[in-house]
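We now fix the convention by which a protein and its fold are recorded. Here is one such record, which you should read through line by line:

>
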Amino acid sequence: MLRFENVDLHYGSFRALEGITLHADAGELVVLLGANGAGKTSIFMAASGIHKPSRGSIRFGDRELVGMRTAEIVQSGVVHCPEGRKLFPLMSVRKNLELGAYVHRSDKAGIARSIDEVFSLFPILEKKRDDPAGSLSGGQQQMVAIGRAMLGRPKVLLLDEPSLGLAPLVVKQVFEVIQRIHRAGTTVLLAEQNAYSALAIADRAYVIERGRITLEGDRESLLNNEAVRAAYIGA
């Protein structure tokens, strides 16, 4: 469904990605593992059209995404939930959610249904629908960020470090919601440093180091890989 072929990406003279080839097929939950600066976010930036690769192809189905505008990519079904949440703190929770549906803004009834679906995923957000997003806890803000991405009606959801900075109980809740989204039929590409929790729900995973894929495999093979355990999981 989403395929990278030999993708390079540069920031000026710095090469952030080199020869990235990966795929997330329809219905899969695929994890990207790697340390800070390894290139996980750059993969998402390339897929969502924020930064154009210097080489290679990114295809969603039969569509080439390289060269498309970000809004067109979202409309096609590839939606990015960024690291750090990137909410509008003075706007209400509901307004932040509605912004995720900008490319579908003419479908008022559909937006209302999608917001109701987000509230069913995150009941606390319905109670805080009129509160400024910046007044919410970190975990609740992450819920808004994921909900906003769901308003884009993703076929492929790019989730960048959704557990970052969250308390363990909240991390557990967030991963449970990711599973629910995946089981409902959305393909998920998940970048995470919380390797054990991510691999526990994954179908497959890639390990990214210094902009290159150094290892790939299914959940069990990576959970039992000594190098992965030493670098990302521990005893």
